[in-house]
TrEMBL record:
InterPro entries (UniProt xref): P-loop_NTPase (IPR027417), TrwC (IPR014862)
Renumbered residue ranges of the record's region Disordered: 1063-1132
The protein, known as: Conjugative relaxase-like TrwC/TraI family protein
TrwC relaxase domain sequence ranges: 29-440
A UniProt-annotated Pfam family: AAA_30
Feature: compositional bias, Pro residues: 1088-1098
Species this protein is from: Actinophytocola oryzae
Amino acid sequence: MAYVTAIYGGSAEQIDYRLGLTQHGCDSDVQFRYHADGRERPLRWIGRGLPEFGLDGLTAGAELTTEQHDLARSLMAGKHPVTGEQLVAPKLAVPADAKVPLGPLVAAAQALAAERGLDDPVDMFAKPKQRSAFNTAVRAVARRGDAALLRVDDALALAETAGLEAEQVWPDVDLLATYSNLYEPQAVVDEAGKPELDENGQPKIELTPRRVPVGIVGFDIGITLPKSASLLLAFLPDDLVAQVEASYTAAIERTFGWVEGRTSYVRRGKHGDGHAARQEQTAGFAGWVMTHRAARPVGDAAVGDPHWHVHITIANMAKAPDGTWLTVAAGGRDLMRHAPAIDKVTQAQVRAFLHNQLGITFTRSARTGVWEVAQIPDEAIRYFSKRGQQVSAVLQQLGYSNADVSAAEARILTRESRSAKSETTAASDATLRGLWRADAVRGGLDPDTLMDRVLTAYRSGMTTGPVEANHELEARFGISLDDLVAKLTDPEHGLTAHARRFSHLDAVAAVADALPHGAEIEDVERLTDLALAHPAFQALPTAGVDQALAGPGAHTQLAGAHQMSGGTLYTTKDVTAAERTILAAATAASDPTADVQDRARVPAATVDLALGVVETAQGFPLSAEQRDVLHRVVTNGRAVEAVEGPPGTGKTTLMRAARVAWEAAGYKVAGAATAAVAAQNLAAESGIVSRTVAQWLWRIDNRDGFAGIDVLVLDEANLTSDRDRAKLYTAAAEAGTKIVEVGDPQQLRGVGVGSMFGYLHQLLGGARLTDNRRQRQADERNALAAFRDGRHAEALHTWARLGELVATETSDEAVAAMVSTWLRLREGAPDPHALTAGLLMLAATNEQVARINEATQAVRQARGELGDSANLRLPGGRETRFHVGDLVLIRRNDRHQQAVTGDMVLNGYRGVVTAVTGEGVEVAWRDPAADTEAEPSRAVLSPGYIAQGGLELGYALTAHKAEGLTVSGQWERPDGTRNDGSVLVYGPGMDNPGLYVSLSRDKGQAMLFGARAELEGEREELFYGPPRNQQELTDRVIAALAERAAATADNANDRPVLVDLAQAPADPTGTGTVSGTGTTAETVAPVPSAPVPEPVRPPDFTEPAPTAQPDRSQPRSRPGREPVTVTDEQRQQWQDLVRRSVAARVADDRDTYRALQAQRRDLTAQLGPERVEVLRAESHQKAMQTLEQRRERQIQERLERLRLEAQWQNRPHSRLTDTQLTHAIRDTERRQAREVAAAEQARRQLSEREQAVAAGRGPRVTQLDSELHRLRVNAERQGTLEEIERRWQHARTQAADAAERAARKEIDAERTRWWQPGRREQLQAEAAADRALQERAHAEVAELARYAAELQQQLGGPGAWRQARPQLERAEATYVQDRQRAHDTDQHELTRLGERIASYDTAALDAGTRREELLTERQLRDAMPDTQRTLERQLRIQETLKQRQQTLDHATLERQPEPSLQADVEYHQRTLHTDIHQDIERGGPSL
């Protein structure tokens, strides 16, 4: 895996974290937090741009030492690491607490414009810049609602220009505090960093603009090798490990150099609006690389699993040819789009080395799709992937899969699952390898056996040697050119499996991933060029191509990618062939002179008769719109027809009438849909016998295709892939079948190359239905219409106004709210089948759906609503428990009951579990075609069927599974409300079509749930800060959802590549739009993924402080009018009404506020517009004067506070609390006494030792003589042991000889004849004597062994006693020299003792000096004013809180905070708040 993460802001914690110094809590660095531990390997500099700084040691490959950390920090701050010069200015923004919401300003301006009779509020602004600023504010509010913010000075300037009173526009905003947040007083410092003093000796203070960094300061490139590569480093023999790791490092360096050469460019000039910036190559990147060997430990493990990976941190700047420094890689986008190629190319190089040098082979993992060492089994890889499994589990709990992480990496919080890296992780390679080996044994694995298998070819001498480039590709790379091209063009898994277009960079990554033996970068690029030259590929022109989005499951091409490195676009010839087939049929159908204009033509009179029959049968008439479309479709006789209709416009009803008309004219009608349930719904609701598209394609390939079929209705045609569409069109042309496509290009697309439905509809000039009759609420219908028209924020605000949008901070809160709402809305449902028909939850991903399903099941189980259960295995090794009463979703078709027993089951049925038996799970469901009173269908699903993915919980579905559904079940709830069909939608992760489909499934109500943590990232947090209230939280959730919807509204993948090749019209209608989306033909690409908007700022507005304010005490001069006078009574009335209105609004007293507004309107009518204008001007001037006075007063208070703070900071002991100061004085006195006592004791020791050393009897000499005496005693003992050894050997020999003689004589005695009794007795007596001698000899052996063991123990053990005499000889040989060295050491220690005496004396003196300083500090505090004493106490508390909070933040990364520490912090926070409150009451300085 490889990824590129932008580093925003560049705080000290972020950079130190990447230097391995700290573990900060930045939520956006989810992936890096998982990996970082700078202790494992030394940091190394990297990048060709390093020599540009002209510093020795700052070169690629050199170690980044501790002393160079400041150089790295400067580099990431955009500064020259040596001179400190700012090379690239950081991007700064006004902080969120210095901004006000724009919504109240726009609303107030619109109300005032209406009061003045103006059609457009912008007419209140005379200057073009002011008009432009207000229009920008209106657009921002439309996009982000009250989440749209503007810096307060610009907002006040707009309000003043419009004649609005700021206090009434923002009654609940502290304008003074917000205005003051624009600036921060700072002490002026000199070059040494010390405060400069004025003529009075006080610190100089200046006000500076307050800004926060928000730009990208650098990038973190993470590269991880497959797990089997890490296991090689853990278990290979020692002589190969260094060589293999060196190859990994070399592969990383070569990949980085390759990426550096492609992306380290800078851009100059304007880019966009038809202009292309000029690219210039640079000297290269500059940064450092961090290498890790292990993953984080899981649980109580001493060390993490083997996990070799690197992190490369580079600065976002490079040196251009003219010497200037600019940001790189098109804002980093080009670098980010290289991430997949970085991964594949690095792995290919590693495979090439391991295969060529060690003969190791590779195979793709069936589980992960990654190339792994063939001889390492998957169970070993899974066993050593504990952390990965833990992270996957956390992601799944949050509703994401591993494939979703890159899209949600700043939002998914896996931090809580981390264990801190232990000190063992920083151990030596040998220690880690030993721990891993022991872990493998515990897991039932034999590392030696594994490595024997891996190195079989290497040890037999069969490694692959170098092969020339012209040799057969299969021998070198493990794949032939034909096979490589076949892989790349495979319709199911190739480069155009999910997109019409792919880039050269995509091809490089795919080629690298397709090589079993891997390859070097140069070989991968050559193979890519060779493959793309094959006739199966087609290069596309880049002119006019802005963006090419892909279909579901495909890699997305970034906007402007064709202008980046490796951005040339291609397609495959089968795509162009399919498009030609489709367009040829559509073009012929749209040509009135063609010979295909008489297919299934129905006379108009027959159509009218069919209409009467249909309307009578269904009990309601067709609309005029439906009648017109019906006549057009069935009477024109065209071979291809297309009907577009948004959700709820009656497309299926229309097809029912069309079927009756066609059948009345004698034609046979059939239907097709992508999903089995959709096909069944088409059959049930329209009466058209239908099959899935896959079934029709099988009939085309294996049977008679469309023979006998006159009309084929292709329902939900936007889900049909064009490869399938081309086959359908070809078969229809052969059979003479008319194809009628019905769908909506703004709904979901199917998985495949893309769908041209929208393009075809325009090319054919197809009919369109527009009248939505599904939703019962007019507001919901209007909201869906606004969403479809691109007014996404307006639509979402409508749902919020209806109380149908729930915004939360975290995903847990959103899921909990969603489940709680489901439980409330389902009350009163008569049975589970009504519940499945009337209430549905939807989400974007399978993982989110699983999370919601499991949460709902858990709540129902806790309530005791579920019955018996069984734990059944699902695909991928997962398990799920199904209970009786659970709502479930059937996922696999089984028409022939091969794995089920009972009624036929189809993919997409929702039902309820009615029984759990040993044979499987019994499920009941209501057939869509059946009457609501009919008996439900039933089937028992076998465990094997479920294990193949046939069943899952069905409380929630993905949006993709919901297209075509209408949720309309009805019941009365106990609270008196009625359910007419409700849909609950989990918004995060939804694109535009998914959100549109989800919100349009209901008849009664749709509710949307969103969590800000999943919708916003680090950059939004920097711009806007945390939400200040629930309304702002809701507005920001709406803004994020709206921006995502706008960014994914159009899909250029639905545009034919023949348009790029100028072989098809870009605008098939001639109106300048494509696909019904409103996109112009000149810019057919969709809106690119929208970046986070900059804070709205009117152009060229100056700061109000230095700008002269206009005189508002007189009315604006108007030609031909006399000056207007205002009496004091009128002025008093007006001011009293304004004051009371503001007070009522602040108190949220709406009745009083409305009454006062009525009085104000009456007074306005009484006074006339001229006097009102004068009064408004006076009120505004007075407010601004008051605001300015308060601002000046607060600035003076802040300046005084800063002066006192500077004095406080300059005192050495000012940060000590009074208690700490008392303790410090006491401790200093004790320390002084302790140092004096230590000095006296050292003097006594010096006096005692001097005489002994002078006489040559110092401690070291005495110790040497004692050691020599000990060696002499040991030598004597060695002699004794040698004698014992000789006697021991003699006794052993004597015992052996006696035993042998006794045994021989005992045998002879046994063999003596019976007539020789005397001889037998003599031999037996001699044998007994020999046995007695043997026993005595054995006893002597044992005694000698015991004695020898005692002596050996005294000499250091069995192996050491023989060294006693040699040790004595060596000691005596060097005694003279050793004695001289010992004497020198004694003299040196005397010198050191004297130095210690001096040190003790100095320490005692320092303690005395510190005691005097502390006493002076106490006297100063006793004499200072109460105000200053209170301020300093508050400063000390703040400092303590800051330090303890840092300690607490660090502790939470390793473990839960200690209760005592947490309680202490909370206590100090309460104390601080109390002190501030009391201080303000006393009139002292305010914090």
